[in-house]
Write a structure and sequence with these properties.
Elements lengths: L1 H21 L7 H5 L8 H33 L33
């Protein structure tokens, strides 16, 4: 499931990059060159609306996928960042060791 979400995020991201490169805020992007033949019939306005709707759809899809991946990846985490636990058999004693990063107390 994690692999599917990662692949979907990559695909949506690449598609979003392509759609953003097609449009231009000043109207001079690639979308204006594609719609040159239909300028007399109002096709450019419809085409820019379509590009804008696709952009918003991809943004929403990316947002949902990122939220889903965060919940999915955290679901497998037990909440313990201490690493693997080592069980010590009963009846055996182990010398006390200082905590990691702290110096040992002087012997008196």
């Amino acid at each position: 499931m994690n692999t599917f979400i990662i692949i979907a995020i990559i695909i949506v991201s690449v598609a979003l990059i392509g759609i953003v490169l097609i449009q231009n805020a000043k109207g001079g992007g690639l979308a204006s060159n594609v719609g040159v033949s239909s300028q007399m019939f109002g096709g450019v306005k419809k085409q820019s609306d379509l590009v804008e709707k696709i952009t918003w759809g991809l943004i929403i899809a990316l947002f949902i996928l990122c939220l889903g991946s965060g919940f999915n990846f955290n679901a497998g985490n037990s909440g313990s960042d201490q690493g693997p636990r080592v069980e010590i058999p009963a009846g055996t004693s182990q010398p006390a060791t200082p905590a990691q990063g702290l110096p040992a107390a002087p012997q008196q």
